[in-house]
Each structure stands twice: as C-alpha cells, then as structure tokens.
Design goal:
heterodimer; A: Thrombin, subunit H; 2 domains; 6-stranded antiparallel β-barrel; 4 helices; 12 strands; 29% strand; B: mainly alpha; 0% strand
Chain lengths: 269, 168
C-alpha cells in the first residue's frame, strides 16, 4: 500500500510538471497575440514601474550618448526642413500621421525573441499596429498595450515583417530578421533585374499605413542574387542603434482605415 | 514566517532584479546571454517539497518573462530544471546520503559536487531556453554555440554569486 501511494505521488509530480510545461509552451507558441500578451499586459505595471525607477537611477551614465543621438536627429530634421523652406507650401490636407514621444522602459537586444517596452499606453492613445521610430530610423510595431505601457515588436525579432523600398528607384521588398546581430536585417523580394549597390538607402514604403512613406531604415551592406529565384538576398545595416535606444516616437495615423481601403490588395504589415 | 523563508524571498527578489536590471542589459557579444537568476532554484534546500519547487520555478520563470515581454520562454526552462532537480540530487548523491536540513552549497557538499550539480542544471536550462527562444532547430549549430558559451559565463557568475551569498 505504501509503495502504491509512493507511486501515485511520483506519478502526480510528473503529471503536474507536464501540465505546467504544456501551459508554458502554449504561452510561447500561441498564434493569437491577444492571449499571448494579455499576461504581459496584466503584469507589466509592476515590471514597468521597477524598470522605470531603475532607469531614472542609471540614466545619468548614458546622458552623453542620448544627447548625441538627439542632437544628430535634430541636425537631420533641420536639414530636411531647410529643403522645404525654399518652396511656398500650399495648403495641403493633413496627412493623418502624428507622433507621440515615448521613453524605452526596457528592451532586449541579444536574444531572438526581442521585445521593447515603452512608457506610453492606452491612456495616451497608443494602440496595437502603430509604427514606432527612433532618432535614426525605424524601430518596430506596437503589438499590445496596457494602460500605461506598450510592448513593441522591434524589427530585430524573427516575427517582424516590414514593407520597405529602395529610396533611389522605389522597388519594394520585405524586411525581416533572423541574424544574431542587432545591427543588421535581411531584405528580400527585390527582383534580380533591379540595379543594386552597396550603400543604397532603404526606407519604408508607406504601403501598410503603419509607417509613413520614406522613414529611414538602413543602407545595403552586401547582396547576392539567388540564381534559382532571380531575387536578391540583401543584408541591410540598420540606422537604429538598438543597443542605446532611449527615446522613440509612436506614429498614430487617423486616416489609416481610409488609406487601407484605397489599397485593398497590399500586405497588412 | 521563519528566518530562512524570508532569506529565500529576498534571494528571489534579488535574483529577478539582478537578472533583469543588470545582466539582461549587458552586451559582450551577441552570442552571450548570462542567466544568473536560476541560482535561486539551485540554492533551495535539498528536501524542499517537489511540488513547491515546481511552483517556485514557474513563478521565477514568469517573473523574468514579464520583464522581457516573452511569456512562457523562461518559464518553460525553469519548470524543467525544477522538475529534474530531485533526479540530479539522486544521480550525484554521496554514498551516505545528504545531510538533513542543508541547502546545496560548496560549503556543505564540496566544490566538485557543486560544480557538477550547477553545470548539469545550467546546461539543461540553457538548452531548452535557447532552442525555445530560437523557435526550434533552424540554425542548430549556431544555437548550440550560444548555449555552450553562455553556459560557461552563467556558471562563472553563478559561482561568484553563490560565494557572495555564502558570506552573508
């Protein structure tokens, strides 16, 4: 009888383990992002607050690099502004894009499933599917929001797909990531007859209405032509420095539904 | 609540904060991820109820997942080592058994014993964690390389952390 009881106890332990492990794997691999992130949304009030407190302590050590990147961004924006100042700008319709600045609460860079948490949420009008850019270029897309925080799927995550184009000739491709390197991403679907050079600038295509047209993404580092498919396989050096990302902008688009209606056949991301 | 329980609660909080606020933000290269937080599971007393260990493993993993926005990834790995911990104890049991009311440590069990005990659990934890993080076995050898090199660094910091805690 004692042996039987021992056996049952042992069996119960293994059973409990298997049950919990299945639960964990379900959390990891479930396709429904609502289920996947409802856990994070309900708990990130605590983790977000702790991370934010910690950031306010150690931020001083990083002020120099933060200032440098913000001042570079100012330089770029002022040069852009100078281009437009020469023309008399006619009364044009508002594009619908608006920028909300946010601070990075926590982020990971050297994993595969990298995510970024930012300190703006539902309360500030942030919703899933909004684009996020940094001082130098594209960062990622909001995947879930709680009241005060949002989780961003950065372009350095294998689940990320962003529609981009070559700035010089407007050929479209798809940006993805599977490398071990947070400075580089992978560009595919550029047809083989297009002329491509090292250093060519890649920007967002504006197709998805998540990002406006022409947000800087990066430059071409190297490319090979796949002989069997006749498409390029291109490695892109990203502009965004994910190692030192502190401030980002969330892009809200009030015309999004109209814009998507006008182009019904494009990809959603 | 006993003094030991409070010590373990403090160790839990310390492990989670140390991992998420310091070690998750260190970048040596893209291949090295140091996971020091499993030190909490390593140091739980040998006779701790198995079910309690399993529950604590789950809570520990989910806490780390919360900070990294990766639901389930760390939890799956910690629950596995929580499950295998009793078997590892049995595997490495000294001839006359473990002393009662002790937690695994260099002082109680010897350096060599603690080394093989930590290496086993760190490797099991890292193998599952990195393959789940990579969503499977594509880039198999690259992931394997990351597992090995990260395990070495995790081991070094876990031993250092362990020695610091022993002094307390």
């Amino acid at each position: 009888m004692k042996n039987l009881l021992n056996f049952i106890i042992k069996y119960a332990f293994t059973l409990t383990f298997i049950l919990i492990e299945i639960l964990c794997f379900a959390l990891v691999f479930t396709q429904n992002s609502y289920q996947r992130f409802s856990f994070i949304n309900s708990t990130n009030r605590i983790s977000g607050t702790i991370s934010q407190q910690w950031n306010s302590i150690i931020e001083y050590t990083r002020l120099k690099s933060i200032n440098d990147s913000l001042s570079k961004e100012n330089e770029r924006l002022m040069n852009n502004l100078e281009k437009y100042r020469r023309y008399e700008i006619p009364e044009i319709e508002h594009s619908g894009y608006k920028y909300v600045s946010a601070k990075v609460v926590s982020s990971t860079v050297n994993k595969k499933q990298n995510y970024i948490t930012i300190n703006k949420g539902k309360k500030h009008g942030i919703e899933p599917e909004m684009g996020v850019i940094g001082p130098n270029g594209i960062v990622g897309i909001v995947v879930s929001t709680s009241n005060k925080y949002s989780t961003v799927l950065p372009i350095i995550n294998p689940n990320s797909r962003v529609s981009v184009k070559l700035e010089k000739n407007d050929y479209f491709g798809s940006l993805s990531w599977e490398s071990q390197n947070a400075n580089q991403a992978f560009l595919s679907e550029i047809p083989g007859y297009v002329s491509v050079q090292k250093g060519d600038v890649i920007v967002t295509s504006g197709f998805s209405a998540i990002f406006p047209d022409g947000v800087p993404v990066g430059t071409i580092n190297s490319f090979i032509k796949n002989q069997s498919t006749d498409f390029y396989e291109i490695v892109v050096d990203l502009y965004t420095d994910f190692y030192n990302l502190s401030y980002v902008y969330v892009i809200t688009n009030s015309n999004k539904s109209e814009q998507l209606e006008m182009m019904p056949n494009t990809e959603d991301e | 609540m006993s003094k030991t329980n409070i010590k373990y609660i403090l160790l839990f909080i310390f492990a989670v904060l140390c991992q998420t606020l310091i070690f998750d933000r260190l970048y040596f290269t893209n291949y090295i991820n140091i996971y020091i937080y499993i030190l909490f599971l390593l140091l739980l007393p040998i006779e701790t109820n198995k079910f309690l260990v399993l529950l604590l493993s789950l809570i520990l993993g989910l806490s780390i997942d919360t900070f990294n926005s990766t639901p389930g990834i760390h939890a799956s790995a910690t629950v596995l080592i929580g499950f295998l911990r009793p078997s590892i104890f049995r595997l490495y049991a000294p001839r006359d058994g473990y002393e009662p009311n002790k937690f695994p440590s260099i002082k109680n069990n010897g350096f060599y014993w603690f080394l093989k005990y930590s290496i086993s659990l760190i490797l099991i934890h890292h193998i599952l964690l990195f393959f789940v993080d990579a969503y499977g076995f594509s880039h198999f050898f690259l992931t394997l390389f990351r597992i090995l090199i990260s395990s070495v660094f995790s081991l070094i910091f876990i031993i250092i952390g362990h020695l610091l805690i022993l002094r307390e």
